[in-house]
Amino acid sequence: MINRLKILIVLLLTIFALSLALSRCLILLFPLILFFFRDTISFFISYIYRVPVGLVCELKSNYVYFPRKNRIIVFYRVEPLLNLERLKGETYVSVVRDFVKRVLVNDDVSVGFFVKGDLKYFIVNLEYRSVENSKNILSSIENVLGEYFMFRRVEERELELLLSSRSLDRLRLMPTSVMFLLILSLLYSFYGFLAGLLTIFLIYLSSKDLRIYDNFAQLLYTCTKNRLLFVIRDPDSVKSDALHVSRCKCSYIIMFRRCRDLETIAREKLHREQESLIVKERGRSYSEVLAWRNVIDRLNYGEEPLIMSVNVSTREFEPYFNLHIGDICYLFDTSRLSVYALTSDIAILIPMHSSSGTVYESSRRVFIGYDRSSREVYVDIDSLPNNHILIVGPTGMGKSWTCKTILTELVKNDISIIVIDPHGEYGDYLRKKFNNILELKFPESFINIFDVGNITLQDKIYRTFISLCEALSYEISQQVLDIIDEVYQRCHGSDPVRMVNEIINNIDDFLLRLFFRKLLDYYSQCRILNIRDIIKSRVVIFNFKNILSDVDVLRFIMLMLIDLLYSYLTSLEISRKLRYVIAIDEAYYIMNSRIIELCIKGLRKLGVGILLITQNIDNIRSDILQNIGLSIILGGPDPYVESIASQYLLNNDDVLWLSTSLPPSHYRRSTRALLMIGPVKKHVSIILR
């Protein structure tokens, strides 16, 4: 674009000079030459309007089609899975280099990013050949994109709002046209008047296909020369610049595509400058020799040769690029207003720093608090990697308050909750917030934990035996399993009092007999409810405050209850949307249990999530942690933070944020935390309500 513009200006100036010196009729060549440079008209119009101007496009359901260029553009809303702050400089540059090399599936495809505040969009610009060809290219790009970003296709109304184009008001060109016509008439009389009319007609004819893109009107500055191309930069400085850009409150578009010719061009330039330095003895060529030698060294090191275009809304990018007020001619087309670049040059503009952790504008969002920039932080339930949540923090740092806040938001979003409450602290709180709360206070009322449910009898016998072993942490003989088997065969789990009596009468182990006698005392005064009716309620609370001192019984009851809930909830149909959340307070009682692992891995696809609240994660297995979609790590004293840091590989800034947190109080109802959605990490202050 710049080269064509320079050629046009030279030709027009030549025509002006020759027309004055030789014959005035030569000015009639003005509109003829302009006819062959019609694509520059959009440049002049955008300069007059001070807004981006481009070709007319056709909006389809989920892509944009440019008929005159026969190209389609697809937009994706993205959020990075990687966190820039957690990557070393060398790692970050390697990640960007790998991403760029893989996402450019062929030389004809241009890709890029549009960043507007906290919103990030990935753009694919490709030539339309056939439906099948376009689908294959987009599928290949999406496979790569999914390894680095959460993403979704921008479609329908959202696409219209994003593009936000309108017709060009050509009446605004009238004052400029009249002035141009007057100047030509004064200089060239009749021939000037005729040339002016033809030129104005040509401009009006060309501008009828142009549109103004209001959503990109703030992108006034255009990159014309990349200073970084000729510099070998340290990876840490690249990361530092990328962090600076991620914190800027500005908008920008970066588009890039592969440039196979850059190495050939660089070698030709190097040869020419060396010849100028040695043969012609021009000393100023020495800097050019070093510059192009650096380009070749970087290419040999493995950087991808690119053609890049950048449009930004601020001059804060001046240290990296020469900027001038320009336009986005033929929207997102890297063949115009573009420069040569290498991977490290564009690395500062690849948005690898997450701001929201979500790509869905869903109404099912949970307000958490504020980040370090005082921006509101929401968790979009429907965009979590999975439905499971972990809240970890020491005593007095707001675990229960945080859990109550989240549970309240979940119920408001039409999600049913089942709370396992050893301390009995959730009933009164949730009853004030919602009606129709069902609270079962053991041993006043409860369910039959020996109910077989939707599993086989043999599977239930095995699970009961395993739960007994895990609850007592006691070596139990094979004889006990045989007794449990016989009792189940006779009673089929129908009457818990009868079953416990049968086990007591047949067992020889004194400790086990004592344990089941305690369980019998509780169940003998208990009103049994049907679990099928219970799980239909919107909010269910199992209150175990009355048996909190009896830890063995508490653990066994909790394990059997979770196992029974699992057996009934697995009968649900597969659902991507979250429908149930089982909240387990003081989860350290049963954290290392087999049933927790079973729930974490087995309930995700059924729209059921597990919310674990615990004081530490020392006894949580790594494979369970890996399947947690949202982790909320509260602050606390140094020993606690150090143990958490070793598990989650926290950096010094994370450790400082957590270790300087103060306990919440009646006057200061907030607490510091790390919010981790998959690999995306945020420093937040949780508002406790």
Keywords:
689 residues; alpha+beta; Rossmann fold; 3 domains; eleven-stranded antiparallel beta sheet; eleven-stranded mixed beta sheet; 27 strands; elongated
What form results from the Cα inertia axes? elongated
> Radius of gyration, Cα only, in angstroms?
34 Å
In the CATH scheme, the class of the largest domain would be Alpha Beta
Largest sheet: 11 strands, antiparallel
- Percent strand equals 15-25%
Mean of residue pLDDT values: 85
Which spans of ≥5 residues are poorly predicted at pLDDT below 50?
none
Structural class designation? alpha+beta
Instruction: Give the end-to-end Cα distance, rounded to a whole number of Å.
Output: 57 Å
Tally of individual domains: 3
CATH architecture of the largest domain, by name, is 3-Layer(aba) Sandwich
Number of strands: 27
CATH topology of the largest domain: Rossmann fold
Question: Can you count the helices?
Answer: 23
- Helix content class: 40-55%
CATH homologous group name of the largest domain: P-loop containing nucleotide triphosphate hydrolases
